[in-house]
Write a structure and sequence with these properties.
Helices cover 33% and strands 26% of the residues. By secondary structure, the chain is of the alpha/beta class.
Length: 314
């Protein structure tokens, strides 16, 4: 049986920092309120002339270098994004061209903030089937272009960024052990982009209730499906949407605070880039090591949700 996992990662975060104090100058809000309600202190915004594809390409180059693979090794590209440069060509098409990755199949995966998990599971199944060997999965979003800077309930939440993973065969005992995906289109009215203004619109109360329930349930379910218990989990990587939602999942898993990734304070909600940015952050800081069991869990507009339990390493 082929074991499939992540063999290398790379991220890109824009240099421009937008702090809570910057928002105090344009909105009726405060650093204290934003921090208490969301856990966010600052977020990164891409420059106006930087597209989602530009960030995706930079992240992909770093992931390939980190994985020790060449462009000839990659045989599929999946980009999870809600903010493509165009409807077509897709961000994945542009990445394929700019990286000169032969004529490999490439497509965008639209599942909002759950997009990276959807992309990871898609890659897993292609590789398990023997169709492809190494798939580049990228989460990239430029949410700053969808922010209504007069809406304090949403403007403070989002940031820009990209992160990529090379997914391929790993040694026995490593890789993805279980996953779950789901969606409920009836909840799409709670979190969406307005077709007229193109701004993000959200019913915060309904999304919060949904997220608190689904994040905890998913984390436990995918762990049990892998034949593990909370005691076996070394790190929980939740979608970085809101610290209170993240904490609800951690407590449901009965994990100590140090076993949950928290990058939200520095980057805000980067949608499809959120989970892979957090994975790479923890690996770089030696908080995820070879052989560690980790749970990835997220939710997003659609409404969508997904989780993966995996053993880290090649």
């Amino acid at each position: 049986m082929t074991n499939v996992g992540i063999i290398g990662m790379g991220s890109y975060l824009p240099e421009k920092v937008m702090t809570n104090h910057d928002f105090e100058k344009i909105l009726d809000t405060s650093d204290e309120w934003i921090t208490e309600m969301t856990g966010i202190k600052e977020r990164r915004f891409a420059e106006e002339d930087m597209d989602t594809s530009d960030m995706a390409v930079l992240a992909a180059k770093r992931a390939m270098e980190n994985s020790g693979v060449t462009k000839d090794d990659i045989d599929m590209i999946i980009v999870a994004t809600s903010t493509p440069d165009h409807h077509f060509p897709t961000v994945a098409n542009i990445v394929q061209s700019k990286l000169e990755l032969n004529h490999v199949p490439s497509f965008d995966q639209a599942a909002a903030c759950t997009g990276f998990i959807y992309g990871l599971v898609t890659a897993y199944n292609y590789i398990k089937a023997g169709t492809y060997k190494k798939v580049l999965v990228i989460g990239a979003d430029k949410l700053s272009k969808m922010i209504d800077f007069e809406d304090r309930s949403t403007a403070i939440l989002f940031g820009d960024g990209a992160s990529a993973a090379v997914v391929g065969e790993v040694s026995e005992g490593y890789g993805i052990k279980s996953f779950e995906l789901g969606s409920n289109g009836d909840g799409g009215k709670w979190l969406y982009d307005d077709k007229d203004t193109k701004y993000i619109k959200m019913n915060g109360r309904e999304v919060f209730k949904f997220a608190v329930r689904i994040m905890g349930e998913l984390s436990v379910s995918v762990t049990e499906k892998a034949g593990m218990s909370s005691e076996d989990i070394d790190m929980l990587i939740p979608h970085q949407a809101n610290i209170r939602i993240m904490e609800s999942a951690r407590k449901r898993m009965n994990l100590p605070r140090e076993k949950m990734s928290e990058t939200i304070q520095s980057y805000g909600n980067t949608s499809a880039a959120s989970i892979p940015i957090s994975i790479e952050h923890e690996v770089k800081h030696n908080k995820i090591k070879d052989g560690d069991n980790i749970v990835l869990v997220g939710f997003g507009g659609g409404l969508t949700w997904g989780a993966v339990c995996m053993t880290w390493g090649k």
